[in-house]
């Protein structure tokens, strides 16, 4: 079995790290990096730290408008697939790299597999929402992280090829948590104490591309009674500078470059709470039982909010301020995202299906 995996953005490297090693136990993987993220700290650091194999192809697409970026990826992925003739195209999450892979796969009439299928924010203004919906509908295999995601797919008429595997990010947090436990280097470097700081991330287009919202978030974070560490995404750097908000942010918050995964997970575990608009960070906070305040009105990771570990506050300064003072947390943590073996299940399902396809092909010859 030969699998062509498409990655391109930071969260996809984290997911691919665990899935890739499981896939390589059962077949051959062609790893394609679209180049959507390209800065050292947005890309290389994950390959180095997590032992992800060097991509077989780096398409070097980089940043552009959504349409042009996706179109360039499609144009670059198609010849790779034609040349390498994989049995399956494996896609992760909801970025433009995901959608580009789904379009190439479906146009070439090949099997497409989607990791993190069935998630919906029901907010069509998010570019990611359209990517999720289209990718699920172009996929033969939908690997759902939760029962809720399975139900969502069924509600859209997708029932064949749906597998509840659990969430691959749970696998990755489990793999890294113990590796970094007790390591104080990053805390010392940032001058913060375990349990006495807030970790924040902000990069969602809807929050960063609106000056008023971004300013409102900064004001909310600035009201925290503890230091706020903000590893800052390049999109957010760009917007803070162009809105003339950089100096203010730099004064009120501990702005640092984006961190590698090991340091970031260590901080997530050590933080008193997390404030974020990231999808992945909401989940990782949940897995590590660090309370999360989400700078969005809705989440596709509904289970984290329903059980009380994740509070959705949007971007209003007062709502953020109030959430930062909350100090009662649930006594128990449910486990809706599987058993931490999603990657292995995905590899096994693909292997089994490839064997069935081969048998059927032999029978029909
Ligand atoms: C993308 C995904 C988003 C995901 C995020 C993870 C889409 C539509 N969005 O958003 O779902 O949550 O990645 O971080 O696919 N930039 C750099 N260096 C880099 C990468 C980006 O400077 O290595 C800057 C560029 O100015 C670029 C901007 O960041 O225009 C946005 O990058 P892009 O990949 O288009 O979208 P993200 O906001 O990163
Ligand atoms: N992350 C990281 N360093 C950082 C910020 C995030 O390693 O400075 C990791 C985080 O642990 C998670 C992933 O990047 O695994 C989430 O990426 P991001 O928030 O950019 O994207 P999203 O999940 O919202 O698509």
TrEMBL record:
Pfam families: Epimerase_2. Residues 28-351 form the UDP-N-acetylglucosamine 2-epimerase domain. InterPro entries: UDP_GlcNAc_Epimerase_2_dom (IPR003331), WecB-like (IPR029767). PANTHER family: UDP-N-ACETYLGLUCOSAMINE 2-EPIMERASE. This is UDP-N-acetylglucosamine 2-epimerase (Non-hydrolysing). It comes from Natronorubrum daqingense.
């Amino acid at each position: 079995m030969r699998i062509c995996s498409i990655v391109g953005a930071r969260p996809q490297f984290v997911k691919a790290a665990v899935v890739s090693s499981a896939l390589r136990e059962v077949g051959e993987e062609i790893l394609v990096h679209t180049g959507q993220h390209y800065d050292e700290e947005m890309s290389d650091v994950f390959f180095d730290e997590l032992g992800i194999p060097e991509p077989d192809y780096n398409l070097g697409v980089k940043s552009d408008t959504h349409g042009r970026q996706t179109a360039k990826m499609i144009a670059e992925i198609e010849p790779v697939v034609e040349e390498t003739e994989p049995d399956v195209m494996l896609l992760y999450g909801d970025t433009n790299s995901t959608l580009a892979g789904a379009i190439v796969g479906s146009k070439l009439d090949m099997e497409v597999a989607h990791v993190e299928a069935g998630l919906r924010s029901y907010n069509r203004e998010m570019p990611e929402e359209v990517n999720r919906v289209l990718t699920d509908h172009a996929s033969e295999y939908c690997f759902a992280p939760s029962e809720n995601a399975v139900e969502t797919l069924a509600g859209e008429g997708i029932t064949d090829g749906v597998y509840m595997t659990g969430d691959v990010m749970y696998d990755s947090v489990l793999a890294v948590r113990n590796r970094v436990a007790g390591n104080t280097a990053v805390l010392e470097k940032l001058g913060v104490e375990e349990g006495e700081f807030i970790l924040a991330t902000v990069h969602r287009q809807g929050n960063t591309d609106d000056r008023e919202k971004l300013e409102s978030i900064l004001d909310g974070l600035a009201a925290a009674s503890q230091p706020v560490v903000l590893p800052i995404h390049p999109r957010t750097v760009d917007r803070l500078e162009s809105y003339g908000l950089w100096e203010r942010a730099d004064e009120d918050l501990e702005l640092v470059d984006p961190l590698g995964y090991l340091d970031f997970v260590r901080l997530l575990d050590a933080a008193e709470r997390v404030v974020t608009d990231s999808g992945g960070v909401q989940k990782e906070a949940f897995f590590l039982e660090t309370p999360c305040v989400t700078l969005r009105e809705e989440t596709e990771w509904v289970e984290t909010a329903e059980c009380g570990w994740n509070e959705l506050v949007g971007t209003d300064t007062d709502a953020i301020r109030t959430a930062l003072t909350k100090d009662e947390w649930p006594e128990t943590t449910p486990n809706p995202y599987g058993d931490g073996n999603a990657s292995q299940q995905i590899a096994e399902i693909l292997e089994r299906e490839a064997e069935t396809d081969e048998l059927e092909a032999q029978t029909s010859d």
